[in-house]
Write a structure and sequence with these properties.
mainly alpha, YutG-like, 8 helices, about 65% helix, binds magnesium ion
Length: about 150
């Protein structure tokens, strides 16, 4: 949680001076409370774990275990998380996926060890941080007229 909150703070601090780690932690918790986010996490982690046990049919097994850059479905699953808070989340995710700062890079590198797969997990972690940062951005700008559906 602390690593994720640190990423969120890194994303939003240029726009919100004084943003605290506690506010970022609260936003990560709010994102993780969404059912669709939990389902995306459970799906991605299950696929990573199955790949580590050689449990997927080919060509999925090779693509997931070796984090094939042309596979692309790890990013697609992450977008289910990112899109919850609109286009700010989308651009945040692109940045985290490209630069891989903090815990995103740690998880990505750990997944490249022999027999390990974090193909989905690194994108999902980045997506949670990106969505939590977008949530903070939206809340700081007040409610959208006639919306009122943000959690
Ligand atoms: Mg990936």
């Amino acid at each position: 949680m602390r690593d994720l909150a640190t990423l969120v703070r890194r994303l939003q601090l240029p726009y919100i001076p004084g943003l605290t780690l506690a506010e970022c932690t609260e936003s990560v918790e709010a994102v993780l409370a969404k059912r669709e986010v939990c389902n995306a996490l459970l799906t991605g982690i299950a696929l990573d774990e199955l790949a580590e046990r050689d449990g997927l049919p080919e060509p999925l097994q090779g693509a997931v275990l070796h984090d094939d850059p042309l596979f692309g479905i790890d990013e697609v699953l992450a977008l289910a998380v990112v899109n919850i808070y609109g286009s700010i989340g989308f651009t945040n995710f692109g940045y985290l996926d490209k630069v891989k700062p903090g815990v995103v890079g740690v998880v990505d590198r750990a997944g490249h060890a022999p027999g390990r797969s974090n193909t989905f997990l690194d994108d999902l972690i980045a997506a949670i941080a990106a969505a939590a940062a977008a949530r903070i951005a939206h809340r700081r700008h007040g409610p959208v007229p006639e919306a009122g559906r943000e959690g």
